Amino acid sequence: MATLIITEKKKAAEAIAKALGPVKKIKKTKILEIFLVPSKNINVIPLRGHLLEYRNTDVFKSWTNPPPREIITNHKSIKKFQIRGLSPFIKAIKEYAKRCDHCIIGTDADIEGCNIGLFDALPFVKQENPKIKISQLWLSSLQKNEIINKFNNLIVPKYSWGESGEARAIIDAFIGFSATREITNTLRSLLNKFRVRFTSIGRVQTSLLYLIYLREQEILNFVPEPYFLIDADLFHINGVFRAHHELNPFKSDNEVNARQIFHKIRNEKIGKIIDNSKKVIRISPPTPLNTSKALVLLTKNLRISANTAMQIMNSLYLNKIITYPRTDSDVYKSDFNHNEILQKFKLHPQFKYYTINLLKNNRINPTKGKKDMGDHPPITPLESLEVSNSRFENNLQKRVYDLLARHYLALFGDEALESKQLLKILIKEEPFSAQIVSLISPGFLEIAPFLKPKYEEEIQIIGDEIPIKEILFVEKETQPPARYTDTSLLKLMEKNHLGTKSTRPVIIKLLLTRSLTKRVKHHYLITDLGKFIIENLIEVWLPFLKPDFTKRVEEKLEEIKDKKRKLKDVVDEIRKEFLKLFDKFLINKHKLISKIDNYQMEYTIPLTSSNCPYCNKNPMKFINIKNKRFLVCSDENCKKFLSLPKNGKLELLNSVCSICDFNIFKVVLRKNNRSIIYYLCPKCWNSGLKSKSSKGFCNNCNEYQIIKGQCIKKF
Question: What is the pTM of this model?
Answer without folding.
Answer: 0.78
